[in-house]
Design a protein that fits this description.
4 domains; six-stranded antiparallel sheet; single chain; 24% strand; six-stranded mixed sheet; binds zinc ion; Immunoglobulin-like; Collagenase (Catalytic Domain); alpha+beta
Length: 782
């Protein structure tokens, strides 16, 4: 639900025109003039800075459906039991991190010590609920205050808006702390100046409440809120972790086990502990489920489609609302070899779930435990909408990049192998661990603690960029380019039909004789390549994948020596923001590749044309592919998730109604690839079911894909055709037809020999065919 329902927009307009006058009287008149919208409860006041508030007399009971924070604690409850430290209760002048949790220990005699003024406060009045975060004291204070307003109507609570004071004046006397400054708001606040006063409590007393006052720019008093202390943590998130049997979940790592930087104290850090140091409480809920794998078969690898299905099943029990909760699945391994991924796509469940893969990160030695800690914290950091260190500038609003284009950040959100202090300075994993203090950066702390509600809470704004609009300047030509690398975007076809999945090819070449060392991650789902798309309307958006793969492993290559160039192909038609190429017209695409040394290598502009439909049949067939669920199925190459059932039916209708239409090939591809795999479904009640592959159907569908794509520019692009034919061969072998499998692979090589390809690309295809054949022969022998 949006706050527009409360007539906020008209109020803003009127208030803005009266703001110069600054008199509250005018505002009062203005709100009387705004008629309530039909069908909605109209609140008496549309701006919580100007009216409303309370002075302490009102009830402080929480409304039933309030979702400002998942669970209320006092900063000394469950989190302390879970082994994390409560940061609120430190002694004056000591860092909270070394402070004991409440309840208060026997107190040192004589000196009257004061409590830290820090943490979360809450005010509840007739129409408003306010969560206030005070961060001027204690461990790594960012010297900010921030808050979120919720409207309360009957037994419903809805988010209204957020504010922050980024550089306040803080005055501390013996008796009180006062924080004053101009706020930044998500709405046009009538009284934007903020004054917070909190009396200081001795260690023998509970923390004192604060009084938050709003003032107009001409210092007329606005609303005032009485805010009792709630928790030493700025935010509280429920954290549920499930693990697949055999995958041992990480518990804790002693940061002193291996050499660490001077000044970083040795301490035992769990995942909740690492967040507690940042002032964020992860409340472990529901224990840790271990999911039996008795019927999981030999294939313990998880595909993107299976992980996506597990996620939608897990969250199907919840309402589609932003909430402070996150789910971590500890699985065995990903079929792409990744360490971790984060689920992130268009509708309800953005940033609510992550997975880490035990086979890639498991182990009991100190170095492995250390990187497990980093991987877990890193993936959860994404759930809080933290971007990778080198991508902060792609956020909305953009955040500043750290040293060396962000690669110099000593953060959980950098990759250790990607760390590069400066272009010629120390870099790589050893340099990272020698300097990393097991902390988030200052900017990340400010986001975690004070980012506006929708930019942080799980399930609200999409990962990274709210509306995914990008500043086209980000993709401007660099003034100097000594990267030694050249990136090219290519279209596999001269144009795409209306509704046809858009695939692009990426090529990274060395421009120097001696070659250039870099990494081999070219797929935009791996987050080291970004593709900006300027749509026919002129709007520029970023392609953002549905699932983010965290490629926390160095895959170094010497481009220009080992290989003259690297190639990749990516389906970018559908991502976290839905379809990017829905409308007919000309699109301009540009990609950047973040090289090993931090260079940003920019591709020339590629123009891609989407043709308008030529007939009613073209239009009808395309629309059967353009649904949101069909987009997800195209990106995942099929799925068994019941939540995508409507998409599967639409694809069936496409194949039934338009079996000879050129777009039908994509329906067969999606169904064929999915039928070739044993599909693991992790249900909402945490049982693992396996649907076995149907090799005969898969082989038939993929055979039709190949047949339709043999001629150049017909059917699917070459990289997809290569994948389809190798999958077809596996399906034939699976259904007991090894001879047909060998035939398909021979046909595959012949097909590409007739396509006039670059000899190196052709050799790569021959190699893949040989590997597939070896795998098939291996399975036949077993
Ligand atoms: Zn990541």
């Amino acid at each position: 639900m949006h706050c527009d329902c409360f007539g906020r927009r008209p109020a803003e307009t009127v208030v803005a025109s009266f703001r110069q006058v600054g008199a509250q009287l005018f505002y009062a008149v203005a709100i009387l003039l705004i008629p309530p919208r039909k069908g909605h409860t109209m609140l008496g006041i549309s701006d919580p800075t100007v009216g409303g508030g309370n002075t302490g007399a009102d009830t402080l009971d929480r409304p039933v459906e309030a979702e400002p924070e998942a669970v209320t604690t006092n900063g000394n409850g469950a989190a302390a039991e879970a082994g994390t430290r409560a940061p609120a209760t430190g002694f004056e002048g000591t860092e909270s991190i070394t402070a004991p949790p409440l309840p208060i220990r026997p107190v040192p005699p004589i000196i009257v010590r004061k409590r830290l003024v820090r943490g979360r406060y809450r005010s509840a009045s007739e129409g408003w609920l306010l969560t206030l975060r005070v961060d001027v004291d204690g461990h790594r204070p960012t010297r900010r205050i921030s808050g979120d307003f919720f409207t309360v109507s009957g037994s419903t609570t809805a988010y209204f808006g957020s504010f922050a004071v980024h550089s306040p004046t803080v005055t501390t006397t013996a008796t009180q702390v006062r924080v004053e400054g101009l706020g930044t708001f998500t709405w046009a606040a009538g009284a934007p100046k903020i004054r917070l006063t909190i009396a200081r409590a001795s260690l023998f007393e509970p923390p004192k409440p604060g009084t938050l006052e709003f003032l107009t720019t001409s210092n007329t008093a606005g609303a005032s809120y009485y805010c009792p202390f709630e928790s030493g943590f700025f935010r509280t998130v429920s954290y549920e972790q499930d693990s697949v049997a055999g995958a041992v979940p990480f518990l804790a790592y002693n940061t002193g086990s291996l050499p660490q930087p001077d000044g970083s104290p040795a301490r035992v850090l769990s995942v909740p502990g690492a967040f507690a140091e940042a002032g964020i409480e992860l409340l472990t809920t529901g224990g840790t489920n271990v999911i039996p794998v008795s019927d999981a078969g030999a294939n313990a690898k998880w595909s993107d489609a299976e992980l996506h299905a597990a996620m939608v099943n897990h969250f199907s029990a919840f309402t589609n609302a932003p909430r402070w909760q996150v789910w971590m699945l500890v699985a065995t391994s990903h079929d792409g070899g990744y360490r971790g991924i984060m689920f992130d796509y268009g509708d309800a469940f953005q940033r609510q779930g992550a997975a880490v893969f035990h086979d890639a990160i498991g182990g009991t030695d100190a170095a492995t435990q250390r990187s497990q800690l980093r991987t877990y914290v890193h993936e959860l950091g994404h759930a809080f909408n933290l971007l990778h260190s080198w991508q902060k500038n792609l956020a909305n609003p953009p955040a500043p990049l750290g040293p060396n284009g962000g690669l110099g950040d000593l953060s959980w959100m950098n990759y250790d192998w990607k760390y590069q202090q400066s272009a010629s300075g120390p870099g790589g994993a050893a340099a990272y661990w020698a300097a990393f203090p097991f902390e988030f950066t200052e900017n990340e702390l400010a986001h975690l603690r004070h980012g506006f509600y929708r930019n942080v809470v799980m399930g609200a704004n999409a990962f990274g960029t709210g509306a995914a609009d990008v500043d086209p300047d980000l993709f401007d030509e660099p003034l100097v380019d000594n990267s030694g690398l050249a990136l090219e975007l290519r279209s596999p076809k001269p144009g795409f039909a209306y509704g046809e999945p858009v695939v692009v090819e990426l090529k990274l070449a060395g421009t120097e004789l001696r070659g250039r060392a870099t990494h081999g991650y070219l797929h935009p789902n791996d987050d080291l390549v970004s593709i900006a798309v300027q749509q026919p309307s002129g709007r520029t958006v970023l392609y953002r994948p549905m699932l983010r793969h965290c490629v926390d492993e160095d895959r170094a290559v010497q481009v220009g020596v080992d290989k003259p160039a690297l190639y990749e192909s990516a389906y970018i038609g559908f991502g976290a923001d839905g379809f990017l190429f829905e409308a007919p017209g000309t699109y301009r695409l540009r990609a950047t590749y973040i090289a090993g040394d931090g260079s940003r290598v920019l591709s020339p502009v590629l123009r891609v044309r989407v043709r308008p439909p030529a007939s009613r049949a073209d239009e009808a067939a395309a629309e059967l592919l353009l649904g949101d669920e069909q987009g997800q199925l195209l990106a995942l190459l099929g799925s068994d998730a019941s939540q995508l059932g409507k998409g599967v039916s639409a694809i069936d209708t496409l194949l039934d109604t338009f079996p000879d239409h050129p777009l039908a090939v994509y329906g067969r591809l999606v169904k064929g690839v999915n039928q070739q795999r044993d599909f693991k479904e992790l249900t909402g009640d945490k049982t693992l079911r396996i649907r076995e592959a149907n090799g005969i159907e898969a082989a038939s569908l993929l055979g039709q894909v190949a047949e339709a794509s043999i001629a150049d520019e017909d059917g699917v692009d070459n990289v997809t055709l290569n994948l389809a034919m190798r999958t077809q061969a596996k399906a034939e072998a699976k259904s007991g037809h090894p001879d047909q499998a060998r035939d398909v692979l021979r046909q595959l090589v012949r097909t590409f020999e007739n396509k006039n390809l670059n000899p190196l690309v052709l050799e790569g295809i021959r190699q893949q065919a040989r590997e597939t054949l070896d795998a098939i022969e291996g399975e036949i022998e077993e």
